[in-house]
Design goal:
The protein is an alpha+beta fold and about 375 residues long. It contains 13 helices and 8 strands. Strand 6 and strand 7 form a beta hairpin. It binds flavin-adenine dinucleotide (FAD).
Amino acid sequence: MQTAEFRAAVVSWIDDHGGQELALSPDRSGSIDAVLGHQRRIQRMLFDAGLMRWGWPERAGGLGGTPALRAVLGEELTGRAIVHTAPWSMHEVLGPAVLEFGPPDLVADAFPRLLRGEEIWCQGFSEPDAGSDLGSLRTTATRDGDGWVINGEKLWTSFAHHASRCVVLARTGEPRSGSRGVSAFLVDMDTPGITASPLRTMADVDEFCSTSFLNVAVPANRLLGSPGGGWQVAQYILSCERGPIFWQRGAWLGHHLAKLVPAARDARSQALVGDAFQQLWAFRARSMATQRQIAQGNLPGPEASVDKIMIAATDQAVFDAARELLDGGLETDDSPAGAAWRREWAYSRAATIYGGTSEIQKDIVSLRLLGLPRGA
Ligand SMILES: Cc1cc2nc3c(=O)[nH]c(=O)nc-3n(C[C@H](O)[C@H](O)[C@H](O)COP(=O)(O)OP(=O)(O)OC[C@H]3O[C@@H](n4cnc5c(N)ncnc54)[C@H](O)[C@@H]3O)c2cc1C
């Protein structure tokens, strides 16, 4: 399947199913329950129509083709705000790594349910004292017969309270083993001992959780990769995050920027919108090259830190422009549409934090791409 042919099929499906009416109305988009329920319904329909399956291998319930097809699907859906980018990203963040490192039986069993929206997966990496410095994580996994027992606490676990499974990074080496002593597991969230406690964000949604693991028994076949190979899994996941996920976030930003154009009536407003537009298209040009690289089977390395810096800055430029153009409305308008702009502006503040902060990305660019000396 070629991308142009696939795009035409997606657009035609959207038109046949009500077009923009498929989008969740702003009065419901502040509820994570509603957002996820809506997404599950869309995913089920797309899966049954075959469109959700393109870009994934047959052994995972897919129909084959490159990840570029998934980028197209995400672009057409988020570009019309039919799904929200954050929850839509989760199968893109975690799916490729489970395909790469998971046992074939597990992939064949769990993946079709993930694609059909019957399951949501979450990412249990960050901890109260391990964010940027992920290698210092303290959650442990100890051997118990053939399996493992996990203990510890994860933080900022997006959608954990709605998730069926979690990719957990845990220490299987000695306490000072750093990134070498980390392993990755796909853990069922209904295992006794797991508690996901929602945290309300400044966008006023309970998107993420503090997630505790108390003597959580994990079977041997839930290890992803090899014992001590969790860092490789984590790096793979971070590389995949720079692919279709960023592309669809760009489409989401384009959708919001287009809504601002009619309000840009004076020179200052036009300059703000113009600047955000320039940043968005510079990002898209950059990201297009990354999508092509991924479609050829090459996951991006440190160079994709540039993509992350650009998309985060663009995100904030778009919603800062909205804040100015809405002229106080973003702070005071409590209508569903006003509240939705406010949530999006607040969420855009997190763009320079999640998936690796902008400071860390700039470190990577200066040290690994530009070869500058450390500490200069
Ligand atoms: C909306 C959102 C969703 C998230 N979802 C998830 C999720 O689903 N799963 C998950 O595991 N995590 C998730 N996270 C957590 C995210 O990965 C971390 O917030 C991020 O890695 C930063 O870690 P931290 O918050 O501990 O900040 P810290 O690492 O403590 O950093 C604090 C500040 O210090 C700076 N800093 C730290 N080290 C350096 C350095 N070496 N050089 C220069 N500056 C430095 C950082 O840039 C930052 O400004 C999410 C975060 C957000 C905001």
